[in-house]
């Protein structure tokens, strides 16, 4: 239909909205952030000059204010990534498998039930979990005491490991629906004749999952794993609103600490440098995951 | 299309978008009907916001020369730093930081134009707004740590720590789930720590930094630990805003604690009044330390350093003159705040029932100790707020030696923060 120069013009026009928005809202801010990280940039007083890698040095030198802020945030975030990624992937896979095996008429109902929590804002989720896990007269404590599991109230939000448990439960409840939907779509794509063949060979449910389902959904599972790691690294709303970073700064995530350095301490240069280092760490972890996946494929 | 043309297109879009953004200007802006615009940003997003709006709207209705655009934002400090506003509400403990960062200017000449004198304010408010080199804000109110009490559980407001202990003994004898008061592990803990410093005569300001590592201060703070673990006047491990949450609960056999008294922020007054109605008592905080003193934060109205235009300054003077008229400022007291404007205080005293919380809090002005004026006060306090107080009140076998170690760490952090101040 389109030929020659006209074809090229149309191609450029079609792709230009993406290119422009990519430049404006991704590449340009990224480059600007990297540039700011090399400056002594104060939110109040503005750019106080180029200082090279001094911000990075401050963040990575033990004993400095920014080192403590960065390392504390990084430790807490990594801890959350480790405890949250397995349940977020495995529970969503289990839910998807359960729904996949339900009669057709029930599938949309359960899909909606499990997915609906994902549509709620983090503010509402936090309010619900604050009420449920209140240490003094909260719903969860009341239920556990009534059925005799605990004899005295648990300080869910003010003591570890309970604070992390609360954050984890809230996160799983809130976001599990998204991963589950991706798994359901992947399961829908699995060729039904493969299961029939496995049935003829006398394969059980576990054997069918290992030999038929998993190889077919592995690529999607890997994508979900990466997306979940990224999402867990970006932990902010739940710890800001449910535990306020406590107890004793143990749930202060890296994003929260970057925000503190920029908007409370006014150190935009330091905050940008922290964000760049965080980006590198995420890239390293995801690169490592890619490498593992690539090696397994081979 | 050649690459150069594509680049030209992208650059054009950037320029177009850049052209759409508003640039900052020190010149006065005018509305279509020729009124000079004054922008005012504050963080009054709670119940008090409507009362400030009422004052602003009344001013705008009275004016044919100026119009004040009031913006109420939760994160108003960030917006102020990155935007272009003429007036800003700054908390008393942030004023020194804003001054050192060059974000605000001496408001003395403007209030002089408005006919407002220093003698129009209570000394407690003036002490907050006057910094080295001038008057950097108009003091609006002080919101000190306030005592609420449940008249069903205690007819009289406790005045001393001994009163609290006696009340606790009485309540515990009746019901094991009812206590005198609740000590939170996070939330309003900065008020608690500064209050106990003030009530024990501890001076935290040490040059440009806060020095927490003082034996006397450790002794004073240990009282909060003892209130929970030794004297047991408070339940343990109450968590965020525990002082107020427990006050609002109803004791339930082993499942929920209730307290008779809450040492809390006056902003919780609306919720407490709704629950308890006439059974809610409000009073100045009791003497817990060795002397009576009160502590809290304050709202002040500061003038942006960007304001240069004389017409805008004149408009601001008119607005302040209107606001600091008792009939108008009474709206602020109705919103639950205690103004430091003396003529308004007289009106509040004359109608104590109507302005219950404003009146009770104004009684605390006499022994009010203001926040130490240091650069980045909030950041210097952060480790104390987020870590030290929590450990102190939630760890049963926490000793003074453990506390001193934490106070040393907090002081070291505060010193590092103080060093980030702009060079004078």
Automatic annotation (TrEMBL), chain A:
A UniProt-annotated Pfam family: BPD_transp_1
InterPro entries, per the entry: ABC_transporter_permease (IPR051393), MetI-like (IPR000515), MetI-like_sf (IPR035906)
UniProt xrefs under Gene3D superfamilies: MetI-like
Protein's membrane topology: Multi-pass membrane protein
Keywords noted in UniProt: Cell membrane, Membrane, Transmembrane, Transmembrane helix, Transport
CDD domains, alphabetized: TM_PBP2
Subcellular location per the Swiss-Prot or TrEMBL entry: Cell membrane
Record family assignment: Belongs to the binding-protein-dependent transport system permease family.
Protein name, as recorded: Sugar ABC transporter permease
Species of the source: Fictibacillus nanhaiensis
Lineage: Bacteria, Bacillati, Bacillota, Bacilli, Bacillales
UniProtKB/TrEMBL annotation, chain B:
Tagged with keyword Signal: yes
Secretion signal span: 1-26
Key words of the record: Signal
Organism superkingdom: Bacteria
Entry keyword annotation includes Lipid metabolism: no
Membrane-crossing segments per the record: none
UniProt-listed PANTHER family: ARABINOSE-BINDING PROTEIN-RELATED, DIACETYLCHITOBIOSE BINDING PROTEIN DASA
Protein name (record): ABC transporter substrate-binding protein
């Amino acid at each position: 239909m389109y030929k020659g120069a006209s074809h090229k013009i149309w191609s450029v026009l079609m792709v230009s909205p993406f290119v422009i928005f990519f430049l404006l809202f991704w590449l340009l801010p990224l480059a600007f952030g990297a540039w700011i990280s090399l400056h002594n940039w104060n939110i109040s007083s503005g750019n106080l000059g180029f200082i090279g890698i001094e911000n990075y040095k401050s963040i990575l030198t033990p004993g400095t204010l920014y080192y403590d802020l960065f390392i504390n945030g990084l430790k807490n975030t990594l801890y959350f990534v480790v405890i949250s990624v397995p349940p977020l992937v495995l529970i969503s896979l289990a839910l998807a498998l359960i729904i996949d095996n339900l009669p057709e008429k029930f599938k949309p109902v359960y899909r909606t039930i499990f997915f609906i929590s994902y549509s709620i804002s983090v503010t509402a989720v936090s309010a619900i979990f604050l009420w449920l896990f209140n240490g003094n007269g909260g719903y969860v404590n009341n239920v556990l005491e009534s059925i005799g599991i605990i004899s005295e109230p648990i300080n869910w939000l003010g003591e570890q490991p309970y604070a992390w448990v609360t954050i984890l439960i809230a996160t799983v409840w809130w976001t599990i629906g998204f991963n589950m939907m991706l798994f359901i779509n992947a399961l829908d794509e699995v060729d039904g004749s493969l299961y029939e063949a496995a049935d003829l060979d006398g394969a059980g449910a576990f054997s069918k999952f290992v030999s038929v389902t998993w190889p077919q959904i592995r690529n999607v599972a890997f994508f979900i794993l990466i997306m979940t790691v990224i999402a867990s690294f970006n932990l902010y709303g739940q710890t800001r609103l449910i535990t306020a970073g406590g107890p004793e700064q143990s749930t202060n995530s890296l994003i929260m600490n970057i925000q503190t350095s920029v908007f409370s301490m006014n150190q935009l240069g330091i905050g940008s440098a922290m964000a760049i280092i965080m980006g590198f760490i995420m890239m390293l972890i995801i690169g490592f995951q890619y490498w593992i996946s690539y090696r397994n494929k081979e | 299309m050649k690459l150069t043309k594509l680049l030209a297109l992208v650059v054009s879009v950037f320029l177009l978008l850049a052209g759409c953004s508003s640039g900052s200007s020190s010149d006065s802006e005018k509305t279509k009907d020729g009124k000079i615009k004054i922008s005012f940003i504050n963080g009054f997003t709670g119940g008090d916001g409507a009362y400030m709006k009422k004052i602003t709207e009344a001013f705008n209705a009275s004016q044919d020369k100026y119009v004040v655009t009031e913006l109420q934002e939760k994160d108003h400090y960030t917006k102020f730093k990155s935007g272009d506003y003429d007036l800003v509400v700054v908390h008393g403990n942030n004023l020194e930081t804003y001054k050192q960062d060059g974000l605000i200017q001496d408001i003395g000449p403007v209030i002089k134009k408005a006919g407002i004198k220093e003698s129009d304010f209570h000394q407690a408010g003036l002490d907050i707004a006057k910094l080295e080199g001038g008057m950097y804000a108009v003091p609006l109110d002080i919101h000190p740590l306030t005592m609420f009490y449940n008249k069903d559980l205690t007819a009289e407001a406790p005045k001393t720590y001994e009163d609290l202990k006696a009340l606790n003994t009485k309540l515990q004898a009746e019901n094991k789930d009812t206590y005198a008061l609740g000590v939170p592990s996070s939330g309003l803990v900065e008020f608690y720590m500064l209050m106990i410093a003030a009530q024990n005569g501890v001076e935290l300001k040490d040059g440009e930094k806060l020095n927490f590592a003082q034996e006397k201060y450790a002794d004073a703070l240990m009282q909060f630990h003892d209130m929970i673990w030794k004297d047991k006047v408070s339940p343990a491990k109450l968590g965020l805003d525990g002082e107020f949450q427990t006050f609002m609960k109803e004791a339930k056999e082993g499942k929920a604690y209730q307290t008779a008294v809450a040492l809390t922020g006056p902003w919780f007054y609306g919720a407490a009044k709704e629950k308890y109605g006439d059974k809610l008592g409000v009073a100045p905080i009791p003497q817990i330390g060795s002397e009576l003193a009160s502590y809290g934060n304050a709202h002040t109205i500061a003038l942006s350093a960007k304001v240069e235009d004389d017409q805008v300054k004149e408009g601001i003077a008119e607005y302040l003159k209107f606001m600091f008229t008792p009939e108008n400022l009474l709206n602020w007291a109705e919103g639950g705040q205690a103004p430091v404007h003396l003529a308004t205080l007289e009106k509040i005293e004359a109608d104590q029932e109507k302005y219950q919380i404003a009146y009770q809090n104004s009684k605390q002005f006499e022994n009010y100790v203001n926040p130490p004026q240091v650069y980045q006060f909030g950041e210097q306090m952060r480790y104390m707020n987020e870590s030290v107080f929590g450990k102190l009140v939630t760890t049963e076998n926490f000793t003074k030696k453990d506390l001193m170690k934490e106070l040393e760490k907090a002081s070291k952090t505060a010193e590092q923060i103080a060093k980030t101040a702009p060079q004078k």
